[in-house]
Design goal:
- With about 725 residues, the protein is of the alpha/beta class.
- The protein has 3 domains: about 120 residues, Chitobiase, domain 2; about 325 residues, Alpha-Beta Barrel (TIM Barrel); about 250 residues, Four Helix Bundle (Hemerythrin (Met), subunit A).
- The protein contains 27 helices and 15 strands.
- The strands form 3 sheets. An 8-stranded parallel beta sheet has the order 6-5-15-14-13-12-11-7, covered by helices on one side.
- Helix 15 links the parallel strand 13 and strand 14.
- Helix 2 packs parallel to helix 3, helix 20 runs antiparallel to helix 21 and helix 22 runs antiparallel to helix 25.
- It is globular and about 75 Å long.
């Protein structure tokens, strides 16, 4: 039975052939039927309360209406996602409940209240986009249909209509490269492992974590068909893969006449091979790929392609850059004359030293405006539209990244989202702004951000963020509670003011800072005020403790408070060492280790925070014990070393998960503390280089481990939280105990 992770319900495993038959033979649903199917899954006791009716678009834009009629709730929409957005609006506004894939289904009032008046909402955005490539690693690497069905439902409720849909593309590449004369051994050296697929798709690496089995490839092609069918039934326009120029190195053996470029290393991995965009082989491979992809999956004419996403092209000559852009699009158009190239604007923010004005203009003006659509990824922090003359007239989508590496952190940047969006929408220099999007690297831990974005998709103004957050808390918990309301006011004033991520000292590879350095990661918010929010949530637990969303929030906020305490706890370790006091070092070290154990106990009460679920999902895809072990190694490596032992990306995708905290971070810190003590005992300087080498080797060995971790929660969240607050509250919130 599949372990469905946080998104899920446990469903019987469906065989590959059954999936293929279902996808091919099932008749297409109408938008109204698809929306009703969502109601059946989400609100099974209220199916008869809703009527669904079609509406025409308004000036090419989606629209929905909600009103009451003869005891029914009438939901009208111009597409499936408009209909389900109407449902979401009704649930929030009339029922005051919040729908989230992070928590149990909401409890609705009985009977359902009728809308007091007719409401009509027209989105100003043609496009509402979803997914970063990286999310297919950090959240979705081992998903099957149950999780996908639930997240597609969630996208539909938000009104998302342009999802990145690139699962299963290895089946396309396999067919294309076999036809070009490559062997299965060549493909084994090319395809990366399941935890790293996006980094192969983007041309960052070859082979790492592979090979992929034929079974994996076939089952994911079948899964992709099912994903696409459901997305299209909702009226979404799936974005499929386009050719970037990245090819197996072995292609130069069978097509030696072509010109190839060897790219520089990405993050320490060997450079990959690209076909020169001016060579006829570039167009040939790209055409073959789109043709085969269309044969397997159909097409909606949008193709994602990010050549040199975090790597510099081999030439900065604007003539070369222009030819590259023309070649990328030309390969798509050779197979699909209606192709639109979807490109991430990340390169302009990530590599501004290369992408100066001449290079940027050459890339963005190489094609007619209607042939390219640009994603501006990091608009809550560093928008690219302001650096690129609004992408030189290309239509573009205002997006947020929000999450890096799917790390478990409490942050949001809510004020930056509302302020920066308002600035873009109202700027005379905004160019051809066509949409909004979510481009998170992981999507598992901060639902308030996505709830806000879902509302802004339809009405891109939020004049009073404090009032919005207060209403959100009331919907989320199903009732008013003064303590919870004040807690959320403080959350908005602290962690949710911060975009990006708050890295945890608990998850960092230990190192000894100099005596002059203030050790530990620094917080850009008042940690005492955040702790006060946690205290208020604990007080509210008497009234709200039966609400699953509340219990999740309590665990998440207290987890962040404990993570914040790790900063001074770690500083005490460094201070004790530099003063040469072994007893102080022992006390400080034991306190830090105890914090790790207590954090693990808290995390263990929530299934969202379990290492065992991630590993079980990985092992599920294996057909033999050898395959299961290989997929588990992929899963372990991604969240720890992220590559070989010397990888500079170590802990990039670190997780505060039960099991990982005591099974990986705790013994790592124990070894560090033992080395510090031995250094003081021997009167010798701490050998930082020696420790770094040894701990890398230990980490590499851990990734090959076979020990199991629980995949079911244990303990009561509120009971554990109260115990830990009694223990740590005086340190987090001085004067409370």
């Amino acid at each position: 039975m599949k372990n469905t992770g946080m998104f899920g319900r446990l469903l019987p495993v469906v065989g590959t052939m059954a999936l293929l038959w279902w996808c091919i033979s099932a008749p297409a649903e109408t938008a109204e039927e698809t929306a009703r199917g969502l109601v059946t899954r989400l609100l099974p006791n209220h199916e008869e309360a809703f009527l669904f009716e079609a509406l025409p678009q308004e000036n090419g834009l989606d629209v929905f209406e909600v009103e009451g009629r003869e005891g029914k709730v009438v939901l009208r929409g111009s597409s499936g996602v408009a209909l389900t957005s109407a449902l979401n609006w009704y649930l929030k506004t009339c029922c005051e409940v919040n729908v989230s894939p992070w928590n149990a289904p909401p409890e609705l009032p009985d009977p359902l209240p009728p809308p007091e008046e007719k409401t009509r909402v027209v989105t100003p955005f043609r496009y509402r986009y979803c997914f970063n490539y990286c999310v297919f690693s950090y959240s979705m690497a081992f998903w099957d249909w149950p999780q996908w069905e639930q997240v597609i439902d969630w996208m539909a409720l938000q009104g998302i209509n342009l999802p990145l849909s690139v699962t299963g593309q290895e089946a396309v590449w396999q067919a294309v490269y076999r036809d070009l004369g490559l062997s299965d051994a060549d493909l084994d050296a090319f395809f990366v492992g399941p935890a790293y697929l996006p980094f192969g798709w983007m041309g960052c690496m070859d082979g790492w974590g592979g090979p992929l089995t034929r079974d994996w490839i076939d089952r994911h092609a079948a899964l992709q068909r099912k994903i696409l069918e459901r997305e299209r039934a909702f009226g979404m326009t799936p974005v499929l893969q386009g050719f970037t120029g990245h090819v197996p190195e072995a292609l130069s053996r069978v097509r030696p006449e072509a010109n190839y470029q060897k790219l520089p290393s990405w993050c320490g991995f060997p450079g990959t091979t690209f076909v020169d965009p001016r060579d006829p082989l570039f167009r040939e491979v790209g055409r073959r790929f789109v043709e085969e992809q269309t044969r397997l999956f159909g097409t909606d004419h949008y193709y994602a392609s990010d050549t040199f996403i975090e790597m510099s092209p081999p030439s900065d000559d604007p003539v070369f850059i222009k030819a590259m852009a023309e070649a990328v699009y030309g390969a798509m158009a050779a197979a699909d004359p209606d192709a639109v190239w979807l490109m991430q604007g990340w390169l302009f923010v990530n590599n501004p030293e290369f992408w100066k004005e001449a290079q940027t203009e050459a890339l963005l003006t190489a094609l007619p405006n209607d042939k390219m659509l640009v994603l501006d990824l990091w608009c809550e922090f560093k928008p690219a539209w302001e650096l690129t003359k609004a992408f030189y007239g290309k239509p573009w989508i205002w997006c947020i990244i929000h999450n890096f590496g799917n790390q478990v952190t409490l942050h949001g940047g809510l004020p930056q989202i509302t302020q920066n969006l308002d600035k873009a929408v109202n700027s005379a220099e905004r160019g051809d702004l066509r949409g909004m999007g979510l481009i998170m690297e992981g999507l598992d831990y901060t639902p308030v951000v996505y709830d806000l974005m879902g509302e802004l998709f339809w009405r891109p103004q939020c004049s009073d963020l404090n009032a919005w957050v207060a209403a959100y808390a009331r919907r989320r918990y199903g009732r008013d509670n003064a303590n919870a309301a004040e807690a959320w006011r403080l959350l908005l004033a602290t962690a949710y003011q911060v975009p990006g991520r708050a890295v945890s000292d608990l998850c960092m590879r230990p190192k000894l800072d100099s005596a002059e350095t203030v050790p530990g990661s620094q917080r850009n918010y008042d940690v005492v005020q955040l702790a006060r929010a946690c205290s208020l949530l604990l007080t509210a637990a008497n009234e709200l403790g039966n609400n699953d969303a509340f219990r999740y929030d309590l665990a998440h906020v207290l987890r962040q408070v404990l993570s914040d305490l790790a900063v001074p706890f770690r500083a005490a370790i460094a201070s004790a060492y530099h003063t040469g006091d072994r007893e102080r070092l022992r006390v400080a070290g034991n306190r830090f280790l105890e914090l790790l154990r207590d954090t693990d106990a808290l995390l263990a009460t929530r299934e969202e925070f379990l290492l065992g679920r991630w590993l079980a999902d990985a092992r599920y895809w294996g057909c033999t014990e050898e395959e299961k072990a290989h997929y588990e190694w992929n899963a372990r490596n991604q969240i720890t070393l992220w590559g070989p032992a010397a990888s500079p990306l170590n802990d990039y995708a670190a997780k505060q998960w039960a099991g990982l905290t005591v099974g990986f971070y705790l013994p790592r810190w124990q070894q560090f503390l033992q080395r510090l003590d031995a250094s003081l005992k021997a009167g010798k300087p701490f050998d930082a280089e020696g420790f770094e080498k040894d701990i890398r080797d230990w980490e590499a060995a851990w990734t090959h481990g076979k020990e199991s971790y629980p995949d079911k929660s244990s303990g009561d969240t509120i009971t554990v939280a109260r115990r830990l607050w009694e223990k740590y509250g005086s340190g987090a919130l001085p004067g409370t105990l």
